[in-house]
Amino acid sequence: MTVFRRRIDIIAHPVDGTGEVRAALEDDFHHFRVWVRHHEGEVTAIGGEALRYPFSMCPQACGPLQLLLGMKLDRIAHSVTRQADASHQCTHLFDLAGLAIAAAARGTHQRRYDINIGRRIANRTRATLICDGVEDLVWDVDGTLIEGPMPYSGINLREGMARWALNTLNEEVAEAALLLRRCTLISMGRAFNLDEEIHAASTALCYSQQPVRAEQALRMKGSTLDFTHEQLKLCAEDQDWLRQRP
């Protein structure tokens, strides 16, 4: 049975009053890295790297991360959306930058998220998030509706969930819930042969899908992998980079 899997690894490096956080993300469709340097509570340098991605224009989305320069460190990862327009960023690079900035703000030295979304049967699936080896969240999901458990029962993943989570849950639980939300939605791509696409859809939802460049954002055929039985391979090649001191 096919399982969508994502791993996110975050490691912080303090350096003489300045800090750097490195973060890597890998799943069936993506493999990205982001590093954030900060000093006196402010982002002073940032960069990204696209290692595996769905469309040819995705690596160019590392550039717009520079809009986060000067941002005050914030313990809430979602706060990057107040600094820059998410629809003109790569969704996953931007999420990863937010997680790195939040880790810097909290003083988190190291964190690992493992997310698993089971194959959908009659539109239903079970979504699981493990944080630092501990199972934190398990949802039963029908389409885009969380069926349980409480307090998530009845929440629609596509309708105001971010606002609800940020207003209802503590910062780290909200962070985990929004990560699981993201993965539950993108896991739906497993139901399609994405290599049949010629280029990105013109949805204006992310950098490559902006109408100005969607037709030039060509499908990277063969970029979807299956980690159902190979979870240990996720972010395996990032480990030396993550631990490399600046």
Structure report:
The protein has 246 residues and is an alpha+beta fold. The protein has helices at residues 80-83, 91-106, 161-168, 171-186, 239-243; strands at 4-15, 18-27, 31-39, 42-52, 110-117, 124-131, 134-142, 145-148. Strands 4-3-2-1-5-6-7-8 form an eight-stranded antiparallel sheet. Strand 1 and strand 2 (18-27) form a beta hairpin. The relative contact order is 0.20.
- Our count of domains comes out at 1
Shape: globular
Average of pLDDT = 96
Distance between the termini: 41 Å
Uncertain segments: none
Helix content: 10-25%
Main sheet specs: 8 strands, antiparallel
Number of strands: 8
Radius of gyration: 17 Å
* Order of helix and strand elements from N to C terminus: EEEEHHEEEEHHH
Q: Report the sheet-strand fraction.
A: 25-35%
Strand order within the widest beta sheet: 4-3-2-1-5-6-7-8
Quickly count the helices. 5
Structural class by secondary-structure content:
alpha+beta
Pfam families: DUF2889
Protein name: DUF2889 domain-containing protein
InterPro entries: DUF2889
Organism: Pseudomonas umsongensis
